[in-house]
Design brief:
It contains nine helices and ten strands. It is of the alpha/beta class. It has one domain: Alpha/Beta hydrolase fold, catalytic domain (Rossmann fold), CATH 3.40.50.1820. Strands 1, 2, 3, 4, 5, 6, 7, 8, 9 and 10 form a ten-stranded mixed β-sheet that branches. Strand 2 and strand 3 form a beta hairpin. The radius of gyration is 18 Å and the shape is globular. The two termini are 35 Å apart.
């Protein structure tokens, strides 16, 4: 599905339920929250929410850096999730203790346009969100992805690194988010190491959902996820191939030892590929993705990102 060139990223468009200024605003003690549609490089509208840090609760690592104008977390949800899912909002609330938060719905999910490519063109959605975060004045960006989003943050960081080093031809990512820069820290939770894995029952069900017409109907009407019918062409860079290209950006790989989708060889493979610039946390008793991540783990992730993001 990686056809076509990439152009301008992160043009802000009015989101749902807009006010007279073209954007949903909610003024809180910590500042103003925004809800916007962003425009990706390939023209897809992405439903996005900005929440400032909560200063009355924020854990400040460096008093010289106001968290609401410095660190921002850009959260990439898992497949079939969206920006208004309760667990996505819970993740955002925890990370707001450490900085501002941008959440968004991937293409084909929630109120966003387009159709899901299950991790391929989704890098453009993340690029738009990161670019928006930079435009809002944030000097440091930590990308945090769960499951499918975990693979997207890895590939996004790798492609940003290649572009900044002047390596490769850019391909799908050429020009995407130009001037925005890559992330300053990356966290991948419950993500795969390789594509096309069918070694567990949940992943076999997911492949049926994605590859079969009847499965895509279930996705559309049962899970509110609109899935593209075309195969990947070309196959995108795999997570394990992406990881070495992220260095020297700090990388954290998080995985539960009870993950029903991807067994522990996936995070261990990613950690081995990362080498010295990566860390691996295997969480006892944790299942899969944001639904299974306890608040205590999210706090540790927030602290890690605030410390490592420069």
């Amino acid at each position: 599905m990686s056809t076509g060139s990439a152009g301008h990223v992160a043009r802000s468009l009015p989101g749902p339920h807009v006010g007279k200024h073209g954007v949903t605003r909610e003024v809180t003690g910590g500042g103003t929250s925004f809800r916007m549609f962003l425009h990706t490089a390939d023209g897809v509208r992405i439903d996005s929410v900005y929440n400032p840090a909560a200063p009355e609760k924020t854990i400040v690592k460096d008093a010289s850096r106001p968290p609401s104008r410095d660190l921002v977390f850009v959260i990439a949800h898992g497949f079939t999730g969206h920006v208004d899912r309760p667990h996505v909002r819970r993740v955002a609330r925890v990370f707001a203790r450490y900085g501002a938060v941008v959440t968004f719905s991937f293409r084909g999910h929630g109120a966003s346009g387009g159709r899901s490519t299950v991790g391929d063109r989704e890098v453009l959605d993340l690029a738009a969100a990161v670019s928006w975060a930079r435009e809002l004045g944030h000097a440091r960006v930590a990308t945090v992805g769960f499951s499918m989003g975990g693979s997207v943050v890895l590939r996004h960081a790798a492609l940003c690194g290649e572009r900044e080093r002047g390596e490769g031809d850019g391909g799908l990512f050429a020009g995407a988010g130009a001037g925005a820069g890559g992330p300053d820290a990356v966290v991948s939770v419950s993500g795969p190491a390789r594509w096309f894995y069918r070694g567990t029952a949940p992943m076999r069900r997911l492949h049926w959902l994605v590859t079969r017409p009847s499965g895509r109907l279930v996705g559309r009407y049962g899970l509110r996820t609109r899935i593209h019918h075309r195969d990947w062409d070309p196959v995108p860079l795999s997570p394990v191939e992406a990881v070495p290209r992220i260095a020297p950006t700090p990388l954290l790989v998080v995985h539960g030892d009870r993950d029903g989708y991807f067994p522990l060889d996936h995070p261990r493979t990613l950690a081995a590929a990362a080498g010295e610039h990566g860390e691996l946390w295997v969480e006892p008793g944790m299942g899969h993705a944001e639904n299974a991540a306890p608040d205590g783990l999210l706090h540790r992730m927030g602290d890690w990102a605030a410390t490592r993001a420069g």
